[in-house]
């Protein structure tokens, strides 16, 4: 089964989007994990600091389904 999800990229991560945009839709196999999506976009290790799925703090093991909204935020630093 195929699922359509929305992916959002913030603070520089949009350069990994296939459309070079902050928001895009993508079709995925139903029940794949965020980890697969991160590989799909080619995020280097340590670039993504926060993952939110449907407005809930999530991680790479979160299973995705049709209609989900996934948001990637970079590592935040400061001091």
TrEMBL record:
Domain Ubiquitin Mut7-C residues, every copy: 4-76
Highest taxon above the source species: Bacteria
InterPro entries listed in its UniProt record: Beta-grasp_dom_sf (IPR012675), Mopterin_synth/thiamin_S_b (IPR016155), Ub_Mut7C (IPR027798)
Descriptive protein name: Ubiquitin Mut7-C domain-containing protein
Provenance organism: Desulfoscipio geothermicus DSM 3669
């Amino acid at each position: 089964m195929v699922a359509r999800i929305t992916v959002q990229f913030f603070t520089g991560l949009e350069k990994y989007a296939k459309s070079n945009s902050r928001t895009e839709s993508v079709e995925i196999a139903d029940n794949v994990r965020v980890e697969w999506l991160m590989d799909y976009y080619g995020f280097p290790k340590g670039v993504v600091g926060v993952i939110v799925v449907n407005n809930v703090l999530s991680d790479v093991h979160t299973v995705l389904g049709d209609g989900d909204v996934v948001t990637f935020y970079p590592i935040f630093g400061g001091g």
